[in-house]
Amino acid sequence: MYLGRLLGASGRIDESETILRESVRTLKHVGDRGHLCEAQRFLSQILVSRGKVDEAERLALQAMETVGPEDQLSVWTTRMALGVVRAAQGRDAEAEQLLAESVEAFADNGMRYAELQALEQLTRFLRERGRDGEARRQDERAHALAPSIAA
Length: 151
Prior knowledge:
Serine Threonine Protein Phosphatase 5, Tetratricopeptide repeat; 81% helix; mainly alpha
């Protein structure tokens, strides 16, 4: 699963999709729901980048069903993934709400790495909608969290 994510982040989208699909199959087979929801949401986000929005939605919703209610990190990462899907569907109000709520949930719970991921998604959403001033504020927030890696 993490290899698939790394491949996606490196721009190797075809390989990422293949690895993540295998991860989902394997994790379903062994019954590892904790990792399965994350593999589903990673795959969902890769599928959005490939224009496979219907399948991405199905996987994002499955991830939200798979996640255990006590796993707060995955509750919000799966909601973030659904926000990415909703943005691709042009359902902007819902997308923005899911992405912004994810950022705040991670911030409120001290999950800084996840907060950076959610800020990246929210910033992309804002920038793609021509809301550059708001996007810059989110970039500044990310830079304050991680000055050496945030751009």
